[in-house]
Amino acid sequence: MLKLDFPVFCRNISSSAGDPKGFGENGAEIICGGQRVRTGDWIIGDDSGIVVVPQEIAQEIANRALDVKEHEDRIREEIKRGGSLGKVLKVKKWERVVG
After folding, report:
1. Mean local confidence (pLDDT), 49-54
2. N or C: which end of the chain has fewer CB within 10 A?
3. What percent of the chain stands above pLDDT 70?
C-alpha cells in the first residue's frame, strides 16, 4: 500500500489479518477509535489525523471549511504584499488589562 501511495491510516501495523468470523455485513454502523461511523459519513484524513463528519452535516462543514480557506488565502495575500499578521488581523499589541 505504501508503494502505491494509497492513503491508509492505522494505529498499529500487524502482519495478521485476523480470523474470519462469518460473512460480515455491508452498511453496518461501526465504532472505530471510539467514533461512530455510518454509511454516508465523510471520512477526511491527512498526516495529522482523521475526522468522521456525519452525513447530515457534511455539506455544512464543507462550506464552512471553504469559507475558512478563502479567509486564510486573503490573509496570506495581504502578508505577501507586505502586511504583518498583526496588522492584517488588527491585533492589538500587549494591552494592559485593568481589572
Report:
1. 92
2. C
3. 92
Domain that holds residue 64: 30-87
Q: Per the domain annotation, does 79 fall within a domain?
A: yes
Residue 74, CA distances (Å) to 15, 85, 91 in order = 47, 11, 16
Q: Enter the C-alpha cell of residue 30.
A: 461501526
15-24, 30-39, 44-53, 66-75: lowest mean pLDDT where?
Answer: 15-24
10 Å CB burial of residue 88 (0-12, 13-18, 19+) is middle
Q: Is 46 helix (H, G, I), strand (E, B) or coil?
A: strand
What is the total residue count of the chain? 99
The answer to whether position 77 is within a domain reads: yes
Query: Residue 4 in contact with residue 10, Cβ under 8 Å?
Result: no
Residue 99 belongs to some domain of the structure: no
Closest to 9 (Cα-Cα) out of 51, 50, 53: 50
Q: Do residues 36 and 29 make contact, with C-beta atoms less than 8 angstroms apart?
A: yes
